[in-house]
Design brief:
Layout: E1 12-16, H1 22-33, H2 39-45, E2 51-58, E3 61-75, E4 78-90, H3 103-115, E5 124-126, H4 131-139, E6 143-155, H5 156-159, E7 167-171, H6 177-195, E8 199-201, H7 205-213, E9 221-227, E10 233-242, E11 245-252, H8 255-271, E12 276-282, E13 295-306, H9 313-316, E14 320-321
Parallel strand pairs: 4-5, 8-14, 11-12
Antiparallel strand pairs: 1-2, 2-3, 3-4, 3-8, 6-12, 6-13, 7-9, 9-10, 10-11
């Protein structure tokens, strides 16, 4: 595959992202999402060797961008390579273009051709687009829906569970991470067994460190619960405080420990005088959490599958285990 532009007949330059495109991408990001993209955030997200993007220019102006961040995943118990689609942007000036020469369509096809499929960087893509983006992608025949995210909100006082005398709670930090990494890997391995036939991002120590401890703009609290006598990990939860809520971004634990872990998170919310605990979860898997005690709301976030990838929509239908920390924007 070369960097030559295959769509010159449409008046577009379509190709993979190059470092010199950063300023144009940053400007389009600010225009679309109404917030800046710092160089530090871009460098953190688009790590060399584990990310890619395609761009579409018209008359020297960037009119579309389609980004991807690699993720190791488990699918039906097997390791696989997926790419999380991020920063999908189309300039308002070209949104009415026809299907075959629509900049979104061109950016997606270029990304597929270069990066997705057998023998390429990743086998399949996924993402968490809003309903407008999803609807547009479905009209273009690019995505098919395979799930949806739900929001769960609990009264923290009702759900709170104080740590039992033999439990020990530790904050995971950059400083103590090297001493906990093996334990975190073992904890993920136990959760992975319970996930069975699901599709999930691998939440091993490497992933947790990059996602939460290396983030250049946000601070997260990571709490590890262990048996103080045996040292065996019970589970891990990641959160940040958002307004009057404790927002739970991630959970790593065997299925049987998830409800007690939620109780500990609610106890932390109470300690901080926060009346509610909130998280998101794929609709298929909310029964892994104490959802009967929560206020459950359908979010306008649909889980898509690429219609031309393998595994395709049929294999991925209702299989994704996704939480807020699986997004790139929280």
């Amino acid at each position: 595959m070369t960097d030559e532009n295959p769509d010159n007949a449409h008046g577009f330059e379509v190709r993979p992202y190059r470092p010199r495109d950063y300023a144009a991408v940053s400007n389009l990001f600010s225009a679309i999402f109404k917030q800046p993209m710092s160089t530090q955030f871009h460098a953190w997200k688009y790590r060399p060797g584990n990310s890619a993007a395609t761009v579409v220019f018209k008359d020297g102006e960037l009119v579309a961008h389609y980004g991807g961040v690699g993720a190791a995943v488990t699918l039906r118990g097997e390791d696989s390579r997926a790419v999380q689609i991020v920063d999908v942007m189309v300039s308002p000036s070209v949104r009415r273009a026809g299907r075959k020469n629509h900049p979104f369509f061109l950016a997606v096809n270029c990304f597929r051709d270069y990066f997705v499929g057998e023998g390429r960087s990743w086998l399949f893509g996924y993402g968490l687009p809003n309903e407008r983006t999803m609807r547009h992608a479905m009209l273009l025949g690019i995505y098919a829906p395979v799930g949806r995210l739900m929001e769960l909100v609990w009264d923290s006082a009702a759900l709170a569970r104080a740590p039992l005398p033999w439990w020990r709670l530790d904050s995971v930090t950059r400083e103590n991470f090297p001493f906990l990494a093996k334990e975190l890997d073992a904890l993920w391995a136990r959760m992975r067994q319970d996930l069975g036939q699901a599709c999930a991002v691998i939440k091993d120590a490497k992933r947790l460190y990059w996602r939460y401890l290396e983030h250049p703009e946000r601070e997260y609290q990571i709490t590890l619960a262990r048996n103080r006598f045996t040292g065996r990990a019970l589970g891990l939860f990641v959160y940040r405080v958002e307004a009057e809520q404790l927002f739970l971004l991630d959970l790593v634990a065997p299925k049987a420990n998830l409800a007690p872990l939620l109780g500990l998170a609610a106890h932390e919310a109470q300690r901080r005088q926060l009346p509610t605990l909130k998280t998101w979860c794929s609709k298929t898997w909310i029964d892994w959490l104490p959802y009967a005690q929560a206020t459950v709301t359908e979010l306008p976030i649909i889980i898509p599958a690429d219609t031309l990838s393998h595994p395709g929509p049929e294999m991925l239908q209702d299989r994704w285990w996704l939480l807020p920390g699986d997004t790139d924007f929280l």
